[in-house]
């Protein structure tokens, strides 16, 4: 599933392509909202909250969530095929929402009610580390990786960041939150990670942007730990795949 930094970058690209421009085409390919035609309206704003995107057009707000395979593809010659859920065009460009997990056209007035359940957004200007820390430690028995993936705790962390944060703090993904001795440091590190990667196509948590050297443990099963050389282990039995170093994470 795309993480908060990916969605932040998609919002920035949509903002640059659409804001201030008049729609010459609005084709919503979701039966419930197929009659919604915003042609002739001006795109006022594009914003993101966690992994959710909102394109505000006149009195409406187009709400989307990428889920596992979704994306927004932008360009004057962007292809439109059977995977398209929405097509927005202006005089000089086209934005196509492909395989979107969620797509709905809301009343702009209350559009953010759709994300009222989210915890503090790691990439938002109104980010609250205090609230995020309180949310994270609210259930001490909960496995750390599971808590990090809960968007009600902090909005924006996906499986890559959850595994990488566990490594950096020396705890296995299954470790109870209660064993995290400095939760505020983890919350601050999560914010730092996403902020540094928010405009990068190739994210890195190691500080090295070269392919194959950009992550500590995620996706590196049976490969040597970058710190100690132990082989990275994995567990694919849960809802999400987890990765860890058996020596560095105890």
UniProtKB/TrEMBL annotation:
Any one of the GO BP annotations: base-excision repair
InterPro entries assigned to the protein according to its UniProt record, in alphabetical order: DNA_glyclase_Znf_dom_DNA_BS (IPR015887), Endonuc_Nei2 (IPR054878), FPG_cat (IPR012319), FPG_N (IPR035937), H2TH_FPG (IPR015886), Nei2_N (IPR044090), Ribosomal_uS13-like_H2TH (IPR010979), Znf_DNA_glyclase/AP_lyase (IPR000214)
Cofactor(s) needed for function: Zn(2+)
Reactions listed under catalytic activity: 2'-deoxyribonucleotide-(2'-deoxyribose 5'-phosphate)-2'-deoxyribonucleotide-DNA = a 3'-end 2'-deoxyribonucleotide-(2,3-dehydro-2,3-deoxyribose 5'-phosphate)-DNA + a 5'-end 5'-phospho-2'-deoxyribonucleoside-DNA + H(+)
Chain segments annotated as coiled-coil in the UniProt record: none
GO terms of molecular function: class I DNA-(apurinic or apyrimidinic site) endonuclease activity; damaged DNA binding; oxidized pyrimidine nucleobase lesion DNA N-glycosylase activity; zinc ion binding
Known EC number: 4.2.99.18
Short name of one Pfam family: zf-FPG_IleRS
Name by which UniProt lists this protein: DNA-(apurinic or apyrimidinic site) lyase
Taxonomic source organism: Mycolicibacterium confluentis
